[in-house]
Amino acid sequence: MEQALEILFTASFWVAAIRIASPLIFATTGELICERAGVLNLGIEGIMTAGAFAGWFTVYAGGDLWTGVMVAALAGAMFGLLHATLTVPLGLSQHVVGIGVTLLASSLTYFTYRLALPEVTSPPKIAPFEPLAIPGLSSIPVIGPALFNQTPLTYLAFATVAIVAWVLYRTPLGLAIRAAGENPAAVEAQGISVTGIRMSAVMAGSALMAVGGAFLTMSAFNSFFFQMINGRGWICIALVVFGSWRPGKALLGAILFAAFDAYQVRLQQLSGGVVPYQVFLMMPYVLSILALVLVARRATYPKALMTPYQKGER
User: Fold this and answer.
1) Which residues contact 62 (CB under 8 A, 6 or more apart)?
2) How far is CA 150 from the centre of its chain?
3) 101 with 82: CB under 8 angstroms?
4) Interaxial angle between packed helices 247-271 and 277-296, expressed in degrees from 0 to 180 and rounded to the nearest 10
5) What pLDDT does residue 175 have?
6) Which of 89, 101, 148, 220 could form a disulfide with 43 if both were Cys (CB 3.0 to 4.6 A apart)?
7) DSSP track, 117-159
């Protein structure tokens, strides 16, 4: 028990937790933007997969790392455009379209991988982002290595949360996005296109989801392999609810889930095989479900979420 508690105060544990949280932060923030505008994007799992492959393959083909990030974001935005076109102006079921986008993006990614690398038996490797220590801050005990000795994409993830929070709560654009998810008729009354706001939000959110996927192939690992997203997209949808549709709370939720995940790996090592490893694997999900149940009952969701809107409706 003493050893299990000591893990929580080690720098290596929190370094791992922040690294695991980084792709979740990108994708959760992207999903939050979509839902704040009134669109549930269940295409997140497939979009993350497409972003993971697009970023990795760009670098593998000779591009630099930041070009890979931009290509991943562009791929995500294109799938977001497809999702938004079907759900916003056409008013199709957001659930069905989202699942369809996930299946399309995942299948298209796997097809492209096999088409581009037909003879490959093991995933090719690239040179990923390296940790970038911030002088002075990275030497702070425990907190320093965890927060100030990460890869550039991790810093970008935290910056993205701050920027999105500022836009949502401090700018007219953010007000329009939130109003589109709460009372789209009021947005139209101000002469603003609800369709334009919602489609733009879905595209921007999908781009962030894809960057979250690209983090896995370009920062956490150095290659692409099938099933690497492994349900992270669905976790991000739950984290949006856990965070009550607020960027700051969603960030804390992502770090909390990542800490559970990092902790179970270390508990497996401590148990020495006495306890089946499946028990530890399910721990982050069980604890997250419990936390979600406790928080979700008090959460206030956007009132127009999943509600199609046509111009002129009241």
Assistant:
1) none
2) 18
3) yes
4) 160
5) 96
6) 101
7) -TT-SS------PPPEEPTTGGGSTTHHHHHHEE-HHHHHHHH
